[in-house]
Amino acid sequence: MKLSKRLLAIIGNAKVLFWAFLFMLVLPGLVMFFTEPTGLLTRIIQIVLPLAVFWFAMTLNRNPGKMFWWLFFFMFLDAFQIVLLYLFGESPIAVDMFLNVVTTNVTEVDELLGNLITAVSTVFIIYGGGIVVAIMALRSKPLLSPEFLKRQRRNALILLVPVLALIGINYAVDKRFIIEDDVFPINGTYNFLLSFSRYSDVVNYKENSKNFTYNATTERPDSLPEVYVLVLGETVRASNCNLYGYERNTMPELAAIGDQLVVFRDAITMSNTTHKSVPLLLTPIGSEHFDSLYTQKGIFTAFKEAGYKTSFYSNQRRNGSFIDFLGSEAEDAIFAMDNVLLGSQSDDVLIDLFKKRLAGFKGEKLFFVLHCYGSHFNYADRYPKRPDNFMPDDIPSAKPQYRDNMINAYDNTIRYTDRLVKSIINGLDSLNVPSTLIFLSDHGEDIFDDRRNRFLHASPIPTFYQLNVPFIVWTSDEYRSQYPDKWAALNAHKDMPVSTSMVVFHTILDLAGVNTTYAKPELAVSNDAFKPVARLYVNDHNDFRTMDNAGLKDLDIEQFKLHNMVYP
Hints:
Blueprint: H1 2-11, H2 14-35, H3 40-57, H4 64-70, H5 72-88, H6 95-103, H7 106-113, H8 117-140, H9 146-173, H10 179-182, H11 186-203, H12 205-209, E1 217-218, E2 226-233, H13 252-255, E3 261-263, E4 267-268, H14 274-282, H15 299-305, E5 309-314, H16 322-328, E6 332-335, H17 348-359, E7 365-371, H18 403-429, E8 435-441, E9 446-447, E10 455-456, H19 464-467, E11 471-475, H20 477-482, H21 484-493, E12 498-499, H22 500-512, E13 514-515, E14 536-538, E15 544-546, H23 554-562
Parallel strand pairs: 2-7, 2-8, 4-12, 5-6, 5-7
Antiparallel strand pairs: 1-13, 3-11, 8-11, 9-10, 14-15
Helix pairs in contact: 2-3, 2-5, 2-8, 3-9, 4-8, 5-8, 6-11, 14-22, 17-18
């Protein structure tokens, strides 16, 4: 009863509500003063500018509850931002984060939110409580006096004048300062609006790309049977693969056939998000400009034009992203999760689909892409229970104190993927025709690896662990015999720094002898003409940045050195 009376007294006090709502509005900016790797002047602006603007805005109505609803969008941004700061430790809400809202399936959301209880609970208490109080204030109608509003409006304007001067000074002294990138909630609002433009490009993709053609041909006889397979792992980082020096034997099956493999030791991806990295792999845009994605078709179209029969088998849910569109270009496109209402299923379904297709093999030219669910969190749900699993692998929650268990579970996902890839190789080997398989991952993952306590991927600022991925090529005896120059070129380039996003499209076409003006021999690691180029990162605004301008920290650069990898 006493608590209820106190709550009613607070709700009835318009001045208390005024300051409480203002505090909620500026809270993320206060936190970001300490988290953002920007200059001191930028961080001061990060606090003072939102404070002055929201302070003034709160004086535009005598009822603070009504003003809260007028500013509800910014409360939404605030709540979203706090969750992301909890998850990644820095950076404003990215365009990709807004797009993830409409391209992430319900299962992934459920798995993720279940491990963000602390952040979600905090946001719910602060901003959910604000919503309840604002509704009650609308009904009780506590009103601020005109004198109070006039005084606060004047104070806000007095504060706004010097901060505008600070913005001008900052533009003059800090060449990297861009207000729509560096000051919240301006950056969050800008990215929110930009996400609508991006989503429109996605929706209009089929119309904008309908007349695109590679004019692809094959330099090989039509009567020569060949099979090429691209296996896209999910969230596999090279540093947890024993083929890359990891102390645990997470890839025993592939290690046993090491003389048939070419392992690229210094490979990174250009994006730490699936909805960008996979299109980069299935198109030539990694060597062009990312926005060309919106008007070009993908690798299946090139192979079809060259006379190949194409198949795309995915164990990920459709989400309306470019992956769906590019995969659907295949003649035989199956999204295995279409018939699974809730939860996930084993990647064994991909092996079954692949073997079923090979059972009817009649000496054709075939091209496959298999898209795994592999090592995506929640790790423990991605593999069957076996006596040789790393234990214990239960994950009470995604927190640093459970890292050992999380690593056990994560390593189990890689061992399971190892068996999957080897099973596909066995199927190819049984055909006794020239064939190749490329295995790589879309991106890696943070698993509380250093003092930053970063977890997951798709953060606005990447890390070494999110970028470093396995890149492995297998060829059949028949392929090596038929095309020894390709095998020699692969081995000659295996220790060179490569960006998977740049080279995979060109390499597969080169291995298969598919010719098109979009194929660049100098970017195919299977071609003698291959030359390493500067590796790039696609940032949130789809700009290509050099690695030393991607936001990597000293801890990340140390990992490049420890793994004997080239930086930048």
